[in-house]
From TrEMBL:
UniProt xrefs under PROSITE patterns: ARGINASE_2
PANTHER family in the record: ARGINASE/AGMATINASE, GUANIDINO ACID HYDROLASE, MITOCHONDRIAL
The protein, known as: Arginase
A Pfam family reported for this protein in Swiss-Prot or TrEMBL: Arginase
Stated family: Belongs to the arginase family.
Listed GO MF terms: agmatinase activity; metal ion binding
Domain of life: Bacteria
Keyword Hydrolase attached: yes
Keyword Membrane: no
GO BP, sorted A to Z: putrescine biosynthetic process from arginine, via agmatine
Keyword annotations: Hydrolase, Metal-binding
């Protein structure tokens, strides 16, 4: 396989992405947050002087090659379906992160360009693809994808080819955005000969094979990435509690491991973490990807999400599990998804979205630091 040159990678990246915080196509909504983020990233005058794009493009050439861990946003919620709003996750979570932590040891590569009505190119006809190519790239003949998940996949694939040792922390987005990123990660690691596993925190299984005829969405992405794992045993799901079917149903169907929230409460996070480590060591796993749906947490901590659920974990439980995993494996990739900061749940008494964002920021900081250090 021929790896494209750095120049080709940069040209593609400038087509596919926009500067950090610009993933939602709007001028005014949340502009205070976007400008705050961009001033902190690119300097106090960058926004006023309209130099954000120029400085971001320059940073792709100078700062990106030095970084160990890269932050990447996919502001798409077209794969959600009960309560939208996770398109604002990348901007709001980044702004919380940058306000609370100066030295994140990560480079922010930007956001995928998102046409909010699209999900994946395979659902589009040629006419629509042409029109969207014209809108995004100024030419209907250019052979580039147009839907957020298709762009994200090609970007992640090129990223891993270009920088095999770097890791990516992706911020969603509804959970469908993990499909392209996890798939690209698994394919890249397979090509590198690395043994990897997927650890998935969620209140829901996301194991439907399709939902209303759509095979890539927030309810199906996990079943869609299983074929890219070495075996289904390389998938561990933690925190499940809102499912129409029992644990046995899912484990018998997919032959992976599920740990429901109740088991974490009954046995304790440390015992659960030790079991996962033992299982993955037996499979000779070296590296893990952590996909984190914020709704794995109880709605008391994560009310600003599409489907808040009671009876969930407290933040210290996934934190303990992730710390134990990090002591034993490299964390090669991770994501934080389903934060919908404009969503207010009437069932939740906490101040939102601040509670959800603060908790998500502390878990994200751990993951980013972990990926930046090994
Ligand atoms: Mn999910």
């Amino acid at each position: 396989m021929n790896t494209p040159s750095r120049a080709e990678f940069l040209a593609k990246t400038k087509h596919y992405l926009v500067p950090p915080g610009e993933g939602v196509f709007t001028v005014h909504t949340a502009s205070d947050k976007r400008e705050n983020l961009q001033r902190k990233l690119f300097g106090p005058d960058a926004v006023k002087d309209k130099r954000v794009r120029e400085l971001w493009e320059k940073s792709l050439e100078t700062t990106l090659p030095q970084a160990k861990c890269v932050i990447f946003g996919i502001a798409s919620d077209a794969g959600g379906g009960i309560q939208r709003g996770a398109n604002w996750g990348p901007l709001f979570l980044r702004e919380t992160l940058i306000n609370s932590k100066d030295d994140l040891r990560a480079y922010d590569v930007g956001d995928v360009r998102v046409i909010p009505h699209l999900l994946h190119d395979k659902y589009l006809n040629d006419e629509t693809i042409k029109k969207c190519r014209q809108a995004l790239y100024g030419s209907e003949g250019i052979a580039l994808p147009v839907s957020p998940l298709s762009i994200a996949y090609d970007f992640a694939k090129s990223f891993h080819e270009q920088f095999p040792a770097k890791s990516m922390f992706m911020i969603g987005g509804d959970h469908s955005v993990s499909y392209p990123i996890v798939r690209a990660y698994l394919e890249a690691k397979k090509a590198q000969g690395k043994k990897v596993a997927l650890v998935h925190f969620d209140a829901h299984t996301d194991l439907l094979e399709e939902r209303l005829g759509i095979d890539i969405c927030f309810g199906t992405w996990t079943s869609q990435v299983i074929p890219f794992l070495e075996s289904p045993k390389h998938l561990v799901q933690i925190g499940i509690r809102a499912s129409g079917k029992e644990r046995m149903h899912w484990e018998n169907k997919f032959h992976h491991t599920q740990i429901w929230a109740k088991e974490v409460f009954d046995r304790g996070a440390n015992a659960v973490a030790d079991d996962i480590v033992a299982q993955l060591k037996k499979l000779d796993v070296e590296e893990i990807y952590i996909s984190f749906d914020i709704d794995v947490l109880d709605q008391e901590y994560a009310g600003a999400t599409g489907t808040p659920e009671p009876g969930g974990l407290s933040p210290h439980e996934p934190m303990l599990i992730m710390q134990t995993l990090f002591e034993n494996f490299k964390i090669g990739g991770a994501d934080m998804v389903e934060i919908a900061p404009q969503v207010k749940s009437s069932a939740v008494k906490q101040i939102e979205p601040e509670t959800t964002l603060m908790v998500a920021a502390s878990l994200s900081t751990f993951l980013i630091q972990a990926m930046g250090s090994k």
